[in-house]
C-alpha cells in the first residue's frame, strides 16, 4: 500500500519509519503519523523534521 501513498504537499514518495510509526516525506521534511494503523495524511497533523 505504501506505493499508492504520496505526500499531499509535494506528491513525493514516502518512506515508512516502523519505530516512530510514521510515513516520512524527505522532500517536504515532514513525517505523517500512523494512528491505529491508519496513516493521517494531513499536512496540519505532520511533524516537521530537522
Keywords:
5 strands; mainly beta; globular; 0% helix
Task: List strands and helices in order, with pairings.
Elements: E1 15-17, E2 22-25, E3 30-35, E4 38-39, E5 47-48
Antiparallel strand pairs: 1-2, 2-3, 3-4, 3-5
Q: Find the count of extended strands (DSSP E, 2+ residues).
A: 5
Unreliable stretches covering 5 or more consecutive residues: none
Order of helices and strands: EEEEE
| Largest sheet entry | 5 strands, antiparallel
Task: Report what the structure shows.
Strands 1, 2, 3, 4 and 5 form a five-stranded antiparallel beta sheet that branches. This protein has strands at residues 15-17, 22-25, 30-35, 38-39, 47-48. With 50 residues, it is mostly beta strands.
Short overview:
The chain is mainly beta and about 50 residues long. The protein has no helices and 5 strands.
Amino acid at each position: 500500500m505504501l506505493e499508492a501513498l504520496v505526500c499531499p504537499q509535494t506528491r513525493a514518495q514516502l518512506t515508512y519509519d516502523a519505530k516512530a510509526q510514521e510515513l516520512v516525506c524527505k522532500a517536504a521534511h515532514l513525517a505523517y503519523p500512523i494512528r491505529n494503523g491508519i496513516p493521517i495524511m494531513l499536512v496540519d497533523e505532520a511533524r516537521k523534521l530537522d
